[in-house]
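Q: What changes when 2-acetamido-2-deoxy-beta-D-glucopyranose is included in the input?
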Amino acid sequence: MADYKTSNLPNPIFSLLFLTFLCLLGLYFVRHPHSHSQSIDFQQVFLSSATNSTLSTYLRALTLHPHVAGTPPSLRTLHYVQTHFTSLSLRTHTHSFDALLSYPLHASLSLHFPNATSLTLPLTEPGHSGRVVDPYHAYSPSGSFLAVPVFVNYGRREDYRALHAFGVSVRGCVAVARRRGDLPRSAVVAAAAERGAVAVLMYVDGDGKDDEWVGGVERGTVMGGLGDPLTPGWGGDEGGERLGVEDGEVKGRFPAVPSMPVSAQNARRILRWVDRATVPEEWRETVSGTVGTGTRPALLNFTYQVRMLANTAWGFLI
Ligand SMILES: *[C@@H]1O[C@H](CO)[C@@H](O)[C@H](O)[C@H]1NC(C)=O
Ligand SMILES: *[C@@H]1O[C@H](CO)[C@@H](O)[C@H](O)[C@H]1NC(C)=O
Ligand SMILES: *[C@@H]1O[C@H](CO)[C@@H](O)[C@H](O)[C@H]1NC(C)=O
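A: The predicted holo structure follows.
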């Protein structure tokens, strides 16, 4: 029997794929004969219309006030961008979407020490009180727990394996995880919930040298997937089909336990009270200053209230 791989004949599968690719390419150019030159025009419009100083003015205007989706300031942001695009003679079209959005209502964190005193941790970022969106994880459920904090490193599978090997379980505890950019927040919460944690705190670990941002908090979503939870995969056009909040496909996208972002500063305050006997050797440097075995660890009072609202968000196309 002839072996195609050793002959000089091209592999039939590759030939077929190559032909399909050529056909698609041909079809693309037949349908979009000027698309290449059009994209250059757009680029030139953008480049010729902006200088470093106008760019910094736009950025300043866009970031001056919070504009969370579904709130009046987000509509003002849309008008701002639209006005500028229109002034560049770009045709714009706005579009509204109905989406289930989540907003923070109330959050508090306090440490309860063995001597019956407690310490309330400040949750606002220094210097920004009232002028920024309260730190929150969008789509986290509400909840209140008094539980022992446990450090879970980045909250990856191998981190839980290390904890398990060290004889530590997070069942009934608040998992405290540092953020790693390549790990979605939803995966961190899911891994903790799977192992019985009642809540999750996440913080961004600085490099330890630059302490300027130690009070800063990273906001973000903990929902699995993108877009509106009620219209997974097809988007929330006004009047379009929407699933209910109780629908299995929708429920599966929300995390099972509440979570909250905290500053590195608050994380340090909490980690100081994590029982040293629950911290594997290789993580000790990260949570230096923990209390020794024999001391009863402090408890963490985690209280988080969120409001889910079907709201109208705006987007636009040019
Ligand atoms: C704009 O800023 C960038 C980055 O600082 C700089 O490299 C560039 O030369 C600046 N362009 C002009 C035209 O000033
Ligand atoms: C209780 O314990 C905390 C933590 O060690 C300490 O900061 C505080 O001073 C103690 N309060 C009293 C009254 O002993
Ligand atoms: C935990 O904090 C919440 C909100 O501040 C408070 O209502 C609750 O009484 C606290 N729980 C305990 C056990 O201190």
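Observations recorded in class: Residues 1-37 have pLDDT under 50 and may be disordered.
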